[in-house]
Write a structure and sequence with these properties.
By secondary structure, the chain is an alpha+beta fold. About 25% of the residues lie in helices and about 20% in strands. Strand 3 and strand 4 form a beta hairpin.
Length: about 90
């Protein structure tokens, strides 16, 4: 499965994408856990202290925000694409 990072998250990770092997039981929570294990500098952007998804990260599976799916319990497959964005700011 592909996990892509955007904007400041890409800069913090030092890469634009990572590949991840998944099983039928894999959930987005597992994916984000592996992301922050491989790229510890992303931990502060993805998680709050109690391992709740931070407002600093917007996570999409196949273009759909996980908040509209099953949240951190959203199941993923090898064919899915995960995108992680920082919050959008502008004026």
């Amino acid at each position: 499965m592909q996990v892509k990072f955007y904007a400041s998250l890409r800069q913090a990770a030092g890469t634009k994408m990572m590949e991840l092997e998944v099983t039928p039981e894999t959930r987005i929570n597992d994916v984000l856990g592996e992301v922050t294990r491989r790229y510890p500098m992303l931990d502060k952007y993805i998680w709050k202290d109690n391992r709740v998804l931070s407002e600093q990260a917007h996570v999409f599976v196949n273009g759909e925000n996980i908040t509209r799916l099953a949240g951190l319990d959203t199941r993923v497959t090898a064919a899915d694409k995960v995108d992680i964005f920082p919050p959008l700011v502008g004026g």
